[in-house]
Write a structure and sequence with these properties.
The complex is a heterodimer of chains A (276) and B (333).
Chain A: H1 7-34, H2 39-43, H3 57-66, H4 68-99, H5 105-117, H6 124-133, H7 140-165, H8 168-176, H9 181-210, H10 213-218, H11 226-232, E1 234-235, E2 238-239, H12 241-261, H13 263-271
Chain B: E1 4-13, E2 16-26, E3 31-35, H1 42-50, E4 57-62, E5 65-66, E6 77-80, H2 92-102, H3 107-120, H4 136-148, E7 154-158, H5 166-183, E8 186-191, H6 194-200, E9 203-208, E10 211-216, H7 218-223, H8 228-233, E11 240-243, H9 245-248, E12 254-257, E13 262-265, E14 271-280, E15 284-291, E16 295-302, E17 312-317, E18 323-325, E19 331-332
Parallel strand pairs in B: 3-8, 3-9, 6-7, 7-8
Antiparallel strand pairs in B: 1-2, 1-4, 4-5, 9-10, 11-12, 12-18, 13-17, 14-15, 14-17, 15-16, 18-19
Helix pairs in contact in B: 2-3, 2-4
Classes of the chains: A mainly alpha (276), B alpha+beta (333).
Chain lengths: 276, 333
């Protein structure tokens, strides 16, 4: 039986939920607002919340000073490109582990996950020198490769849990029907796993888009994505809060919009397999 | 043509021996049923024949040809799975046509074969639906349709009716029986339900812990079970077993008597028992009784019987219907 909740209790819980939600959302809201202030207003004490002179000058300056569109293009190429290559590797890997497991499959999965526990800084020097040696610094292919490698465990894990949900009978039926391994994956497994593959890709694109450690350390300008754009406005000469905020807003807007419209897919992806 | 022969077939999963040397011959056109309790290896045996599992040892021959190393599709067999295993993203038409498409048959021929199979199975109106829009029985028919269009040498059924409700199960049982009559193709059918085995089979293969306990026609197994295991497995309700002096007097360690072969009387008889429960089904009455030093009995009385819990009655077995077993549970003649 559902528990009875009084109206006042319900109202206070709703208010509390809104308060917590706003508290979490506040930094983003403040960043967006600050992007429309002059540098003077951005520093004003007491802070000005809504009553300041709204301006777009920060946005024009960000585009003029550091070519927003070029970095946005890099962000798209790096996050989408690294994911397509990642999926080409991860789909067969997850297929093998889900449908043809051996005694060591669980260990392999744990090992893959454990690589995500290692701090990136721990291998930074090694990767940096390798990149230097192979002339991959500030190169899209190079950074894309590192992003792909760092997301691969997540891709494989998520796809593995999706594939585990697909009844093996159906794949065996395809085998009885004369499908080759390739036909089985293309005509039967993949169409059934499309929702899973889509939400895996979505999550992984978001992670790549927001990745800052490697993109900041391995690129200087040509291959630099939007994370670099944000970092530019925090310089040794001092931080320009209004411009930094405008740059941040521009950098997170595309992924925020993508995330907003695909919430359902994302939540389903993250909780898939939790309940049958 | 579709005769299937198994020669000393073995299957181990790691240290666990699932199939311990099975020799078996299924003739062309025969309806064979593998039956046994869960875990006896009947599904594994079917999957070995299908080619979905690799043999640990032995040989499988189809029409005299060794197919032990041949892949599932090349064996020319079709399988109907317990879960139906339909392709959920394809229409009924797509499901039935899939194997033909994989075999690269021309489109007109595929359409003709799909339509013919759909007509046979009353699926014509549902060809453009997705599996999720069908009822359990219809899904089962699609799974059978998918098997029929391939014109296989033999059909393999893995507990195909166990997901259906009781009424539908009986109906589909009849339909599969009729289909066999119509196609005259070899069928191997796995079930744990001995009623399905008795009603459908030309030949029943009773499996016990990975070995064949007995092979025979339904009535052979019913009338002459070769041991206690088969005696207790075939027949419903289960055969009554009596041990001790009543068995010794008939030169056996234990004797078995089926519920329908016991005469019940209120006045006189061999075994005095007390009725614990009487189930009145109209056509039959099942009497559950207990006798001191005799154990429990189930008695089937044809028609209606005026018996209720607490009644004291006498049971008398029909001598010519008594099965005798030795101390190892083997049949004594």
């Amino acid at each position: 039986m559902a528990r009875k909740v009084s109206t006042t209790r319900r109202a206070s819980i709703t208010a509390l939920a809104w308060a917590v939600g706003l508290l979490i959302f506040f930094p983003i809201l403040w960043t967006v607002l600050t992007g429309f202030k002059t540098e003077g207003d951005a520093y004003a004490i007491p802070p000005k919340f809504l009553f300041f002179s709204w301006t777009l000058e920060n946005y024009t300056e960000v585009q003029q000073r550091s070519d927003y569109l070029a970095h946005a293009l890099n962000s798209i190429l790096l996050s989408v490109g690294s994911n397509i290559v990642g999926l080409i590797i991860a789909v067969p890997a997850a297929w093998a582990m889900a449908f043809s497991p051996t005694k060591r499959t669980k260990d392999l999965l744990m090992w893959m996950l454990s690589t995500k526990m290692m701090p990136s800084a721990g291998v930074f020097m090694a990767i940096y020198f390798l990149f230097q040696e192979f002339h991959l610094l500030d190169n899209r292919t190079g950074v894309g490769f590192v992003l792909m490698m760092s997301n691969l465990p997540i891709l494989v894990w998520m796809l593995y849990t999706y594939f585990k949900e697909i009844p093996v009978d159906i794949l065996e039926a395809a085998r009885m029907d004369g499908a080759t391994l390739f036909e089985e994956i293309v005509y039967v497994l993949t169409p059934m796993a499309i929702p899973g593959i889509a939400s895996t890709m979505l999550l992984s694109i978001i992670l790549s888009w927001n990745e800052a450690f490697w993109t900041l350390n391995l690129t200087t300008f040509n291959a630099a994505p939007l994370t670099y754009l944000i970092a530019q406005f925090s310089s040794p000469e001092g931080t320009f809060w209004a411009k930094l905020s405008a740059a941040s807003t521009l950098a997170i807007a595309p992924i925020l919009i993508l995330g907003w419209f695909s919430q359902k897919q994302l939540v389903r992806g993250l909780t898939f397999g939790a309940v049958k | 043509m579709g005769s299937i022969e198994l020669k000393n077939v073995r299957k181990d999963f790691g240290p666990i021996k699932v199939i311990n040397g099975v020799d078996l011959k299924i003739e062309d056109g025969e309806f064979a049923v593998f039956v046994g309790p869960s875990g006896c290896g009947k599904s594994t045996l079917l999957r070995l024949i299908a080619g979905l599992e690799d043999l640990s040892a032995g040989q499988i021959l189809i029409d005299g040809k060794d197919v032990s190393e041949v892949g599932p599709a090349q064996r020319g067999l079709a399988m109907v799975f317990q879960s139906y295993a339909l392709y959920p993203h394809m229409s009924v038409r797509g499901n039935i046509a899939f194997a033909l498409k994989m075999a690269k048959q021309p489109a007109e021929m595929i359409a003709a074969k799909v339509n013919k199979a759909a007509a046979t199975l009353n699926l014509t109106d549902y060809l453009d639906r997705k599996p999720r829009q069908l009822s359990g029985g219809q899904r089962q028919r699609v799974a059978i349709g998918r098997a029929i269009v391939r014109e296989p040498k033999a059909f393999l059924f893995d507990e195909p009716l166990s997901n259906l409700d009781a009424a539908l199960r009986v109906q589909m049982r009849v339909e599969i029986g009729e289909l066999h009559h119509q196609l005259k193709t070899t069928m191997i059918y796995v079930t744990h339900d001995q009623v399905e085995a008795m009603t459908m089979a030309d030949k029943i293969v009773v499996l016990d812990r990975g070995s064949v306990a007995q092979v025979g026609s339904p009535l052979e197994l019913y009338n002459k079970p070769n041991g206690l295991f088969v005696a207790k497995f075939i027949g419903s309700p289960i055969m009554n077993i009596v041990e001790g002096e009543h068995a010794a007097r008939r030169n056996a360690t234990s004797i078995g008597i089926r519920p329908e072969h016991l005469d019940i009387s209120k006045t006189a008889g061999e075994w005095p028992v007390r009725v614990r429960l009487a189930e009145h089904l109209g056509s039959d009455t099942f009497v559950y009784a207990e006798g001191e030093g005799l154990g429990h009995f189930t008695v089937r009385v044809a028609g209606e019987a005026d018996l209720r819990a607490g009644d004291n009655v006498f049971l008398t077995p029909r001598e010519d219907r008594i099965h005798k077993f030795d101390k190892d549970g083997r049949r004594l003649e």
